[in-house]
Amino acid sequence: MRLTHWTDYTLRVLLFCAATQKREKAPTVSEIATLHQISKSHLMKIVMELASNGLLVTSRGRGGGIRLLKPANQIVVGDVVRQTETDFDMVECFNHASNSCKLDGRCKLKSALQTATKRYLETLDELTIADLLPTAQQTIKPPKSLKKRP
């Protein structure tokens, strides 16, 4: 299974907010976009969705930014992936409406992939955003273009 860019970027936003939660100034969409070289407008859509899902709080204007609405240890990665991924149908026979496989019901592939998907999500359900944070030696540094100049 491969995560969409949307889910990947969603997790990056949550991780960055969690990693920088102790600093005085809230991170901004521009800061995260610059760090990860991602479109600012694309990230803005993700941030708005995270805010509507109750994971982020946003503030506009000077001194504005984004912050986690819940502690990082209460944001379950499996829940985030389920909210952002739209398709867990690994093969055609998972979808009854569009299935044209002539082997459906007679091979074991569907069952094996269903089990694998279930275990994949169970593994992600055991992790929180806090579990994925870098160690103290691996802290996230702001991109050079955002560092204050003397």
What does this structure look like?
The chain is mainly alpha-helical. It has one domain (5-144): Arc Repressor Mutant, subunit A. Helix content is 41%, strand content 5%. The chain contains 5 helices and 2 strands; from the N terminus they run H-H-H-E-E-H-H. Strand 1 (56-59) and strand 2 form a beta hairpin. The N and C termini lie far apart (47 Å).
Keywords, please?
single chain; 150 residues; mainly alpha; two-stranded antiparallel sheet; 5 helices
How are the secondary structure elements laid out?
Elements: H1 5-19, H2 29-36, H3 40-52, E1 56-59, E2 65-68, H4 77-84, H5 109-125
Antiparallel strand pairs: 1-2
Helix pairs in contact: 1-3, 1-4, 2-3, 4-5
Quick gist of this model?
The chain has 150 residues and is mainly α. 41% of the residues lie in helices and 5% in strands. It contains five helices and two strands, in the order αααββαα.
The tally of structural domains comes to: 1
Describe the sheet with the most strands.
2 strands, antiparallel
What general outline do the C-alpha atoms trace? Answer: elongated
**What is the total tally of β strands?**
2
- Reading off the top of the CATH hierarchy, the class is best stated as Mainly Alpha
The helix-strand sequence is HHHEEHH
**Main sheet strand line-up:** 1-2
Percent of residues in helical segments? 40-55%
Assembly state of the chains shown: single chain
How many angstroms separate the termini?
A: 47 Å
Write down the Rg: 19 Å
**Mean pLDDT metric:** 85
CATH topology: Arc Repressor Mutant, subunit A
Secondary-structure arrangement, i.e. CATH architecture: Orthogonal Bundle
Under CATH, the homologous superfamily reads: Winged helix-like DNA-binding domain superfamily/Winged helix DNA-binding domain
Report low-confidence residues grouped into runs of 5 or more: none
Count of helical segments?
5
